[in-house]
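As practice, study what follows.
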Amino acid sequence: MTHPHREIYARSPEGGVQLAASADRWYLTDDHVHLSPHHTEGRLMRFDAQLLPIVDNPSRGALIITDMQNDFCSPGGWTHRSGLDHKACREAIPGVQRAIEAARAHGMWIIWVYWHNRPDLRNLGAPTLYSFKHSPDQAGIGQDLDHGPVLLSDSWGAEIVDELKPYADEDDIHVEKVRMSGFVGTHLEQVLRTQGISTLFFSGVNTDQCVTTTMQDAYFLDYNAVLLTDATATSSPAYCKDAVIFNARNCWGFTMTTEAFASPTPYPAENG
């Protein structure tokens, strides 16, 4: 006899459909997606996400903050000096602040993911170097600008922006990366597995580059992925972020605002 939780597309107790099996299963209904029917200890909350609201246990979640660094967001940084729109990247700062406050209220981990490259650049191949240097006279990773080298470990450019430093806590997790994705060549997945984290809420810059590649890799690894739309920004044209939002909610997972992230409702509803 097949165990009920091992049958793909089985009928769920709520009258919907089971997706996947055992501890990885979801329950899909007409009006929400239950991400953790197997993990109900403590509290379940319903978040107003798109395409459908999600139900989850906040204890399984973490906020991922990507690349909120001077070289992307501050005057004199690499984005600014390369002629790109660093002010557009700064638009993510208030949303990231709200997201951090909400994640702490939910008891979630805060995970800072950011570029910290070796001074000798031996961990970088030509494709990655070219991403930051499209002409011989453009400053690339490791080369000097007014405030020092671009995105090197311990450089000004690699520091978290001043507006977010007061929001950091010594208990937060820091993951240094050397590719756009926060998963490639890092210990991010080990942290998530050992801490029992299954649902990731994504914020930071650039929405269409490091944020989306990390979100895609999370999806490929079967994490539950949620893009916080007003806590991300990009120096790219607006249609680039629009495309990420479309794919985030139609392919890789879900989207929601920081307001929805901060104000879920109990599940089932307290009034019955």
